[in-house]
Amino acid sequence: MIFFYKKIKKFRFDEIKYGIYLGMFLFVGFLTQTTGMKYTSASNSAFITGTNIVLLPFAQILLIKTRPKFENILGIIIVVIGLYFLTNIDSDKINTGDLLTVFCAVSFAFYIVLLDKFSAKVDTNALIYGQFLTTTALALIAALFIEEPLFGRIEFVLNYILVISLIFNALFNTFLGLFLSTRYQKFTTPVRAGLIYNMEQIFAVIFAYIILSEIMTTVQIIGAAIMIFGVIVSEFYYLLKAKFS
Fold it and tell me: What is the Cα 77 distance to its own chain's centre?
């Protein structure tokens, strides 16, 4: 935010407040997902978080009174099927962590739709500033009063790995990700944005293979292919229909 100091001084509260609303949903999503990970598996967490895409049409109807198109719904169904195979969810072991992650999925669904609504009203930088301000404040409160009771004693060890991780996550995962989504989501629909965001699961598996040498199973490869097909159906349904009809 140092680089945008001059712009920040000009922001009005009626601009920042929309970023504050978004920041609250973003924080709830991060909090419930992170806490849920303590009690469930990574695959369950990934699948349940990804199901926010199923909730998007309902959130879209509720918040912006817009019905998703048929091809979008079809794409959602296909992507969720692919997500099931990609994450290899263990459906026989539903637990507290899974229930917490459901709140994460709901929160992210509302976040995506509200971002679409608010990004058309106010400046992108004001929205980003409001989100950063809110999530930072709420995260600090959570770290001071919630983290230790939930996770036990917290140790902070400052080393170069931590510093590099913080810088990388702050600049690329947080700032750049928020900036791009806030700046450009208004040019598409919430459902389409949700479909694109769910490609994160595929890229996570790919980079796990490249960086960590984790091997994709045949089922995961099939799941990734199904997800990609789901996005293609959502975006190019009528072209595919015309070609094969």
Answer: 18
120, 187 contact by CB (below 8 A): no
Residues in the chain: 245
Where helices occur in 38-176 by DSSP H, the ranges are 42-50, 52-64, 70-87, 96-119, 124-145, 147-151, 160-168
What confidence tens digit (pLDDT) does each residue in 208-218 have?
A: 778 878 777 88
Tens digit of each residue's pLDDT (9 = 90 or more) over 119-151: 888 888 888 888 988 998 998 888 887 777 666
Among 103, 110, 104, residue whose Cα is nearest residue 22: 110
Angstrom CA distances, 127 to 37, 41, 63, 124, 168, stand at: 28, 33, 18, 5, 22
Q: Which amino acid is at 222?
A: I
What is the Cα 54 distance to its own chain's centre? 13
Give the whole-angstrom CA distance, residue 245 versus residue 238: 10
pLDDT of 231 above 60: yes
Span 27-56, pLDDT tens digits:
999 999 888 888 887 777 888 888 888 888
Q: How far is CA 178 from CA 19, 41, 121, in A?
A: 11, 26, 17
